[in-house]
Design the sequence.
């Protein structure tokens, strides 16, 4: 044993000096998301290495409806309200949940506005960084496919 | 239970089927031996022994009819019902025969004698058929020897029971003694088939048509058409013939040494008893391990080699009792232990659907027929040729040579049959294309339909043919707008278009080469009699950028040496006219790829560093087409940037093997940027050259795990592209060894740290990831040594949830890999209940994890310790901190 090197981040590590979460803790947040539940640990570390920690005061906007989805958030602590005037929906997200991920993956505009309801910390992943990680790591892409196929109940042999 | 499992070489979960099969064969053989003793007593009491030859004829005829009926019935009934039904039918027969014997009906002893022989054949065959359907290949290899020891035990028990009971209840009533044993066997069969049957598998061995297997002759035809089954038939037939020779030689010597009836009986009885005991011990203690260790590839030769040595010994020491004992002893001991298990293993790759019918014919008919042939040959050798023991020995040696040759052939055929279980059949060629492509008389209608095809190559060929037939009218305007740029370019060369139409296409087409093709045609038309270059130059001053670029491409590609400075001036003018943020730069960048001229290099280098990503991307992709070496120093560092890495790789692919030296230098330089080095194997995979293979093989030992993985994958791709490339077996073997050892270490670590699933620790998941990836790497490395299709099929089969296929893969690799490699690879792909290898304590494993160069492994271990996963080692937290 012992000839493995860790997969270094494929884009510059955004972990700043003031970061409160270790890469491992951030990887665990990614693992908590359904979408990445099938990804390997090294893939999760890859994703974690491109995530940045952000803080939001109560009432602060994370992103607005119909804006370009250039990043998504994973809630570390606090609460975020997702609301859409057009679709008349309101949902409250808690720690471990993501906001804006599907819009980033589908390259569509945000379908709701995300607003912090209390002091909130999130892990932010820029869309470009996510695409870069995905484009260089087929394992994560395969795990995404597996997740969606399972979710849709589609026979993978078709 | 663990101890018993260890002695019998069983894995967890195999105890029930193994002991049920053992019990089934013991019950069957015990019943048969009782019946056999009764039949001899009843027949010899009623008739002279001289009447036996007529009975033998009756047995031969009766077996033929019964087997034909059995095959017909067996293809219509489920196996559990067929076997239980057969046993219940035999129980009914016994009862009726008992009544007939007690009534002293004259033909009863005759009928009972023939019936008993058929009973023995069918019951034994059925046990092995069930065993074949319950155990997969790998299990069969370990468990068949244990089952066959049940046969030896049953034979001994049957004799003992008959001897004891006959004194208490008499010979006639002894006929009913097997009934309770057979009733228990019915229950055992039901449990075995209902609870432990393998999923049925269709096809293989060229014998997948079940419909044809419904009749005796249908099955016989199947056997005749399958080379593998024919080899089994030949092997068993020659083996039966040799056994008769051995028996005769032994008896000749015994008769020569002992002279009284009692002394002969006493010697044979005790000799056979010792042999049976020896065979039983051999089978129980070592049989399973021997078959598992050496497999079919060697165990097929054990019996013929032992008998050959015994025969040679007897030839050297004629009439010596010890020599005859060696011969008979080796034959008897091995035949009913290792060889029986080996022979039964040969049936395992035969598809379930026809296995029982094939086995019925081979075991019931072929073996009996071979016995008859053996007898006739012996009569011929001794009576006609008047040969003595030496002559029989020489005849045996000839037969043994045939046996060894057949065993050798069978060994290869077995490997192929096993591979068929997990290698899918070849994909059929798309039928509609074949007559079009290969027809000698390409009709005009076919040609027209080819021109309308979506297939690029087909349309290009059709256009060539249309041009050769002088039918330019068939090349329609639609083809100038075909999806394929190659088709459009060709159509623009050949289609009957006016100059205006061609210029219009130049302005509209997105592909630089297509535009060049069109403008070149215009130039040829206008510069009649001159070189087309002069016709092209007039477009260099056109206000339309596309026309200018197309003319430049035309000049650079189709005129051997455009006047010095022409291209440079034209490009400088374009550069001066275009604003820096114009989107038209993208078109310029694309066109530069088709201007492989030194005068275009400066502008191309500038565009490779353009601030607009789409212009830069176009410049990167076109740099490969231009293929100028000046770009390489600028392109290679961009491999470290994930935004450009994929495009740069495509670009470098276009350069081809001429940049191999540069790529190899970077790959071998540990001081070079890690991401650049990691990209090189992906580029080398595009060059199917021996040099690429050699460079990649060297990088199998790089310190960087991801680079090694990419090197393995790239080598695999190269092997698929060109199977003639040479892959250094020593280097691959060394890497294979390291990968296997790493994977096994991870497995042992997982077993020690997480004996039960579901901890939710990242460390547990990471170890599982590493095991799965290690397995993947091992197969990819194997693909460099084995036929690639086989290795890839094996990898895919291992990922399936099909136990039979996975066992077939393991058996195949067990058979083809050389000794040391086999010992390393098999534990990776076929984990036993507990992994073998040096045991490490939890503390030692944690220590190794915490000091591993893999940063993620270190972090995950520290995290698990921090969660107090192993309270006894919580002190480790200090080390981590």
Sequence:
């Amino acid at each position: 044993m012992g000839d493995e090197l860790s997969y270094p981040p494929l884009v510059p590590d955004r972990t700043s000096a003031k970061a409160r979460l270790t890469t491992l803790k951030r990887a665990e947040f990614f693992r908590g998301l359904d979408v990445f539940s099938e990804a390997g640990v090294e893939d999760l570390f890859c994703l974690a290495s491109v995530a940045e920690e952000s803080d939001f005061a109560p009432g602060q906007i994370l992103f607005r409806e119909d804006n370009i989805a250039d990043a998504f958030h994973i809630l570390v602590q606090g609460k975020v309200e997702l609301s859409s005037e057009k679709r008349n929906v309101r949902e409250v997200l808690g720690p471990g949940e993501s906001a804006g991920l599907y819009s980033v993956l589908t390259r569509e505009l945000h379908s709701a506005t995300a607003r912090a309801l209390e002091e909130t910390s999130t892990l932010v992943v820029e869309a470009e960084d996510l695409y870069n990680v995905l484009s260089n790591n087929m394992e994560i892409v395969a795990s995404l496919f597996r997740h969606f196929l399972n979710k849709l109940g589609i026979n993978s042999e078709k | 239970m663990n101890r018993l499992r260890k002695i019998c070489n069983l894995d967890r979960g195999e105890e029930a089927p193994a002991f049920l099969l053992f019990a089934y064969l013991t019950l069957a053989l015990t019943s048969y031996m009782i019946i056999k003793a009764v039949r001899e007593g009843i027949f010899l009491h009623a008739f002279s022994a001289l009447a036996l030859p007529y009975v033998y004829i009756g047995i031969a005829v009766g077996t033929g009819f019964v087997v034909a009926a059995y095959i017909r019935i067996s293809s219509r009934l489920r196996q559990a019902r067929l076997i239980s039904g057969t046993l219940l039918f035999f129980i009914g027969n016994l009862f009726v025969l008992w009544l007939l014997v007690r009534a002293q009906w004259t033909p009863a002893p005759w009928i009972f004698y023939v019936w008993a022989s058929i009973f023995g054949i069918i019951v034994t065959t059925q046990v092995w058929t069930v065993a074949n359907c319950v155990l997969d290949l790998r299990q069969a290899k370990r468990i068949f020897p244990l089952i066959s020891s049940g046969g030896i035990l049953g034979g001994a028990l049957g004799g003992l029971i008959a001897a004891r009971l006959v004194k208490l209840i008499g010979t006639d009533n002894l006929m009913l003694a097997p009934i309770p044993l057979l009733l228990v066997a019915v229950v055992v069969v039901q449990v075995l088939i209902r609870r432990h049957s393998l999923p049925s598998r269709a096809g293989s061995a060229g014998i997948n048509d079940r419909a044809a297997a419904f009749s005796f002759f249908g099955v016989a035809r199947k056997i005749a058409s399958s080379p593998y089954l024919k080899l089994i038939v030949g092997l068993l037939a020659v083996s039966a013939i040799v056994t008769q020779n051995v028996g005769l030689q032994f008896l000749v010597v015994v008769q020569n040494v002992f002279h009284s009836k009692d002394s002969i009986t006493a010697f044979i009885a005790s000799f056979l008893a010792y042999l049976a005991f020896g065979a039983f011990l051999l089978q129980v203690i070592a049989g399973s391990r021997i078959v598992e260790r050496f497999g079919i590839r060697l165990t097929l030769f054990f019996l013929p080699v032992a008998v050959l040595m015994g025969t040679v010994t007897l030839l050297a020491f004629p009439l010596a009792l010890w020599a005859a004992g060696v011969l008979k002893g080796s034959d008897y001991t091995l035949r009913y232990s290792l060889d029986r298990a080996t022979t039964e293993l040969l049936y395992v790759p035969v598809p379930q659907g026809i296995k029982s019918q094939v086995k019925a014919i081979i075991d019931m008919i072929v073996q009996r027929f071979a016995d008859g042939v053996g007898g006739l040959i012996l009569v011929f050798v001794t009576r006609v040729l008047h040969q003595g023991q030496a002559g029989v020995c020489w005849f045996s040696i000839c037969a043994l040579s045939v046996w060894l040759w057949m065993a050798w052939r069978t060994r290869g055929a077995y490997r192929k049959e096993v591979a068929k279980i997990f290698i899918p059949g070849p994909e059929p060629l798309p039928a509609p294309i074949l007559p079009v492509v290969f027809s000698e008389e390409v009709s005009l209608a076919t040609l027209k339909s080819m021109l309308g095809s979506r297939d690029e190559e087909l349309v290009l060929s059709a256009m060539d043919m249309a041009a050769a037939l002088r039918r330019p009218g068939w090349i329609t305007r639609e083809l100038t707008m075909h999806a394929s740029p190659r088709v459009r370019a060709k159509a623009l060369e050949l289609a009957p278009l006016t100059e205006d139409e061609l210029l219009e296409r130049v302005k509209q087409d997105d592909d630089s080469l297509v535009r060049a093709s069109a403008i070149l045609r215009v130039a040829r038309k206008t510069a009649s009699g001159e070189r087309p270059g002069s016709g092209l130059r007039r477009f260099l001053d056109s206000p339309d950028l596309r026309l200018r670029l197309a003319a430049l491409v035309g000049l650079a590609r189709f005129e051997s040496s455009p006047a010095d400075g022409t291209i440079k001036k034209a490009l400088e003018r374009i550069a001066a006219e275009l604003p820096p943020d114009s989107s038209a730069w993208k078109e310029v960048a694309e066109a530069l790829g088709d201007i492989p001229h030194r005068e275009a290099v400066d502008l191309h280098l500038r565009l490779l560093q353009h601030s607009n990503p789409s212009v830069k991307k176009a410049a990167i992709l076109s740099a490969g087409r231009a293929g100028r070496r000046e770009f390489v120093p600028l392109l290679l560092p961009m491999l470290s940037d994930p935004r450009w890495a994929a495009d740069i790789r495509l670009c470098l692919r276009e350069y081809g093997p001429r940049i191999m030296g540069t790529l190899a230098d970077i790959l071998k330089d540990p001081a070079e940027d890690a991401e650049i080095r990691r990209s090189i194997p992906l580029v080398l995979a595009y060059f199917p050259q021996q040099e690429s293979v050699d460079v990649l093989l060297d990088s199998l030992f790089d310190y960087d795990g991801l680079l090694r993985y990419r090197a393995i994958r790239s080598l695999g791709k190269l092997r698929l592209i060109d199977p003639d490339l040479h892959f250094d077996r020593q280097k691959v073997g060394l890497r294979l060894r390291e990968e296997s050892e790493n994977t096994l270490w991870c497995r042992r670590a997982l077993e020690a740290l997480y004996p039960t699933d579901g901890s939710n620790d990242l460390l547990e998941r990471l170890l599982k990831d590493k095991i799965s990836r290690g397995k993947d790497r091992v197969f990819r490395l194997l693909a460099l040594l084995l036929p690639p299709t086989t290795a890839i099929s094996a990898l895919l089969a291992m990922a399936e949830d099909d136990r039979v296929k996975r066992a077939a893969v393991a058996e195949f690799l067990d058979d083809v890999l050389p000794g040391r490699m086999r010992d390393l690879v098999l534990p990776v792909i076929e984990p036993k209940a507990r992994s073998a290898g040096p045991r490490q304590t939890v503390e030692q494993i944690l220590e190794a994890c915490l000091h591993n160069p893999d940063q993620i492994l270190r972090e995950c271990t520290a995290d698990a310790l921090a969660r107090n996963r192993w309270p006894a080692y919580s002190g480790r937290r200090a080390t981590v901190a």
Notes: Chain B has a mean pLDDT of 81. The interface with chain A takes residues 642-643, 645-646, 674-675, 703-706, 708, 738, 741-742, 745-746, 749, 762, 765-766, 769-770, 773, 848, 852-857, 859-860, 863 of chain B (CB under 8 Å). The domain at 440-681 of chain B is CATH 1.25.10.10 (Leucine-rich Repeat Variant). Residues 20 and 191 of chain B are 8 Å apart (CA to CA).
